[in-house]
Amino acid sequence: MGFSTAAVRYLRPAALCASLRPGASAAVSATRSLSVPTTNEEKTKDELPGPSVSTTLYWLFVKGYAKNSHLLQGLQKSLYGPMWRSRFGPFDVINVASPELIAQVIQQEGRYPVRSELPHWKEYRELRGQAYGLHVDTGPEWYRIRSVLNPKMLKLPEVFAFAPIINQVVDDLLQRVELLRSRSRDRTTVSDLSAELYKFGFEGMSSILFESRLGCLQEEIPQQTLRFIAAVNDMLTLSDMVILFPRWTRSVLPFWKRFVQAWDNLYNIAKELIDRRISELEAQVQRGEPAEATYLTHLMSSDKLSRAEIYVTVTELLLGGVDTTSNTLSWTLYHLARDPAVQDRLYREVNGVCPDRRVPTTDELSCMPYLKAVVKETLRLYPVVPGNGRFISENEVLVNNYRFPKKTLFHLCHYAVCHDEHQFVHAQRFLPERWLRAEQGSAGSYQHHPFSFIPFGVGVRACVGKRVAEMEMYFTLSRLMQHYQVLPEDGAAAVKPKTRILLIPSKPINLRFLARA
Ligand code: HEM
């Protein structure tokens, strides 16, 4: 199947944005038709091609695609065409792997789209009497939560208010890089960069959400922070296991109990951090000191979310915001190290806009088109969420002339689409230039379909953290470029991606950071 349990998870909680904006990408063809074709010869899903369960098992566990389910998307597309059906365990999934078909699904997703059902998350919340939150709530209840988050997360001036916090964390990252390279044998290498960037991502998101520093980039990471990071990892890993096994196995297999324990740890630490910060803010207000309009203050003062909903929502934002951004940063630095011409051009752009290592302002970031093109191209080659989902529960759907009943789960094969030569010339190459309007053509690019590049998802349920993630990545990369030239280790082999829910490096990325004069 082009659909793994891992995909289910992001289909799961992944992370939401803008409405369908045909202008979303730099090279959107305005003339393409997104309308749903209708003829009289409708077909049913039983007529769709797709692998048998045994073929799927063979691919996943004999051929090794369980770890590379992003590649299975392309393989299956070549065998079955752009739409096929996969059945495996509890899943019956319709895979769509062309921008036109993805557009058709999204056009019919309804007012309150659902990525996938998360029965095990819902069950945990009910077990503990917690609020459902962003990922489990559906319909108008989900929208109510989104409408509180969107203004603070998706409006640029609001997002820019997080710039000082993010830059403080980038300061710490720079110090950490300096420390690690000075300790390395050749005094330049930072080993396992993704692990360092994960801690950076965690510190960055928690600084915004909890308005407190957790010390992830310190030499001695505080115990509570270590427990928190471990709980996040455990919960996400176990979430995939729990959904695969039927309920009766819970008394014999340890996964459900450990899943509940991991959620308990995660929720309790988040609750403690939030309560502590809220007490500080309340004391501040009582003393007559003005409270800054930061994230928690915004959620509290909106009066639209209960305290229980705030606990869950903030935890879920953290879950969506760490490894997505940190993995994208890892891949970007990996490519910059292997492509000196791209890195040099990026350095010249950053240095031209902000000489003498001056910290860029948000206005100055907007004068760095090549920086943005580099990040876009990284997200095209390594879409950290390689497959997305839509569970259309309310209505029947007509896609590619097949009629699907209510409660059909669609897997949007984003990885296959943004690696498609018909959409992107030299699709396997790292060519940031393709995103620069003035230079289209030099990189052989041409007008691609708006739904061929949707790394943050699409529609009203798209990623709520898109703007924050972009700003964090722009500051981090521009400032790293000001200080260092990055290079691969001598003779280092290429690092391929693998799917572990997200598209992550299959082995540690070690890079040399040479201080710029
Ligand atoms: C490179 C960085 C990121 C990428 C590529 C990414 C990608 C995605 C994608 C593909 C989705 C699913 C969207 C859909 O279903 O259409 C999503 C949802 C989501 N993302 Fe992100 N994300 C990133 C960073 C972040 C950050 C920084 C945050 C937190 C501030 C975040 C929080 C979320 C949340 C909470 C959802 C679920 C929203 C909902 O269901 O209403 N993401 N993300």
Strand and helix map with partners:
Layout: H1 5-11, E1 43-44, H2 53-62, H3 69-80, E2 83-88, E3 91-96, H4 99-107, H5 119-127, H6 139-154, H7 156-160, H8 163-183, E4 189-190, H9 193-209, H10 223-244, H11 255-286, H12 295-302, H13 307-321, H14 323-338, H15 340-353, H16 362-365, H17 369-381, E5 388-392, E6 397-399, E7 402-404, E8 408-412, H18 414-418, H19 466-483, E9 484-488, E10 497-500, E11 502-505, E12 511-515
Explain the overall architecture.
The strands form 4 sheets. The chain has a 4-stranded mixed sheet. A 3-stranded mixed sheet has the order 1-7-6. By secondary structure, the chain is an alpha+beta fold. The longest helix has 32 residues, at 255-286. It has a single domain (53-437, 453-515), classed as Cytochrome p450 (Orthogonal Bundle), CATH 1.10.630. It is globular, with a radius of gyration of 23 Å. Mean pLDDT is 88; it is low at 1-36. The protein is built from 19 helices and 12 strands.
Care to give the gist of this entry?
With 517 residues, the protein is of the alpha+beta class. Helix content is 49%, strand content 10%.
Backbone shape: globular
- In terms of DSSP E residues, the strand content is 5-15%
Proportion of helical residues: 40-55%
End-to-end Cα distance, whole Å, is 51 Å
Secondary-structure arrangement, i.e. CATH architecture = Orthogonal Bundle
Q: Please name the CATH topology.
A: Cytochrome p450
Tell me which ligands are bound.
protoporphyrin IX containing FE
Rg over CA atoms, rounded to whole Å, is: 23 Å
| Total of helices | 19
Largest sheet: 4 strands, mixed
